[in-house]
Hints:
Layout: E1 3-6, E2 16-22, E3 29-30, E4 35-40, E5 45-49, E6 54-59, E7 66-68, E8 72-77, H1 84-90, H2 96-108, E9 128-132, E10 142-148, E11 155-156, E12 161-166, E13 171-176, E14 180-185, E15 192-194, E16 198-203, H3 210-214, H4 221-224, E17 228-229, H5 255-264, H6 282-287, H7 295-299, H8 333-348, E18 351-359, H9 361-373, H10 380-394, E19 400-402, E20 407-409, E21 414-417, E22 419-421, E23 424-426, E24 429-431, H11 438-453, E25 467-471, E26 490-504, E27 507-521, H12 527-542
Parallel strand pairs: 21-25, 25-26
Antiparallel strand pairs: 1-8, 2-4, 2-7, 3-6, 4-5, 6-8, 9-16, 10-12, 10-15, 11-14, 12-13, 13-17, 14-16, 18-27, 19-20, 21-24, 22-23, 26-27
Helix pairs in contact: 10-11, 10-12
Amino acid sequence: MAEVVKMPKMSDTMTEGVLAKWHKKVGDKVKSGDVLAEIETDKATMDFESYQDGVLLYIGIEEGAAAPVDSVIAILGKEGEDYKPLLDQAGSGAAAEPAKEAAPVADKAPAATPAPAAPKVDLSSIPATVIRMPLLSDTMTEGTIEKWNFKVGDKVKADDSLADVATDKATMEVVGYEAGTLLYIGVKEGEAAKVNGIIAIVGKEGTDITPLLQDDGAAPAAEAAPAAEVKTETADAAPAAEASSDDDSRVKASPLARKIAKDKGINLNDVKGSAEGGRIIKKDIEEYTPSAKPAAAEAAPAAAPSAAPAAKAPIVLPTFTGEEKFTERNVTQMRKAISRRLSESLFTAPHFYVTMSIDMDQAITARTRMNEIAPVKISFNDFVVKACAVALRQHPAINSAFMGDKIRTNEHVHIGVAVAVDEGLLVPVVKFADGKSLSHISVEVKEFAGKAKAKKLQPNEMEGSTFTISNLGMFGVDEFTAIINTPNACILAVSGIQAVPVVKNGAVVPGNIMKVTLSADHRVVDGATAAAFLQTLKQLLEEPVRLLI
């Protein structure tokens, strides 16, 4: 009998998996223990083995696609066996197959056939242009019409300012590029309109604009953008002054044309306007080609009286035009899990932080002596893991977890060690760390780090932590705080060892200081308890012989 194969739950935090690769195809024979596929979870990519014999009758998810836990990904059975009833029972887990059977059902029920739609009007043949609410800032979602400068029926020119719009940052003018009659106003003064919403229509007098209004929202934002130009209103008018050949403040120009000219370093006195009354618009600036100034303008400084002091030449900055660009990538399953878990932790558990400086002089000496005889190189991180494990035995409240209506105090010590990988962060767990030697801890942590970077960590190797350590000391970090790895009540952030002057026996001497910061869940741990734990940790690391007792 055919059997459904579902997306397995491969870790305690997994909600969906990505089918990285199929090792079998439809029609292949499968034995129990054969690797059916590779599945990418939120923590690693793992082989998925078949638990039954048979023929692969159906594949429900393509390579590279994601599927929620317990959804149908395949069906195994006897060759030629009808598996469709299993898909019907599974519901949406196999939407592709039911879709093929839906067509005949529709043929049997002609009464449900919808009435033919009315022929679509060719909007391009309508002699009118839609003016939409433009995106005037990167954070703008809507704009408020403060004032209409025209009313329905008025004639407007291509460079007329139609309305004043208040955004989330400033009040700006919306200038339409279309000449004609204002046929429609869609938003009253004082009302707001969403970005890309219709605010006006300009076109030939008497035009039926109903199809344009019915098609509201069909035009993409990219097509609406050229329909308007904007400018920020200045609070103070420019002071009246006699215009000179270099002063173009009195030249008649649209706000957008003036802005473009300023960006390009073009003097508006040199540009000939094509709009009514010689007004300069955007097109004139874009088509402008710099040329030599008239001879009279060049000769003017020479004709100045010799007694007049020479004016300082204005500083001209070179024009630099950069290119805005970016890349995007899909969020991986691991990054999704990190985002979800850490957000839940930070916004659910009330964090507080306690920082302490630890003198690492004796730890440095002890490590050097130990590595001369130890079978494996011991790191400062191994010292911290061992010291935390011993300190947790003395302060069980730190080794606790908040469980909703209960607080669980763990009598065993399982320490999670955060390991950075290319796609995020994994936390393998050193179990019963308080009973292991420094050499044992060193070997185990190194093995976990190698597995993590190769994506070979198993779920059971990342579960069950009662306390977590995040160490950025190898990056030279002075101090940082970490987000609690729930359901743990605490996490320790470990910084680098800094060579700094310290006071010992009343004298300033060179010292090696390491700062640690404990992030604690205030629902479980109080400040005094956290401070007491750090005091014990400090004593253990400043006198490493205590770790051997």
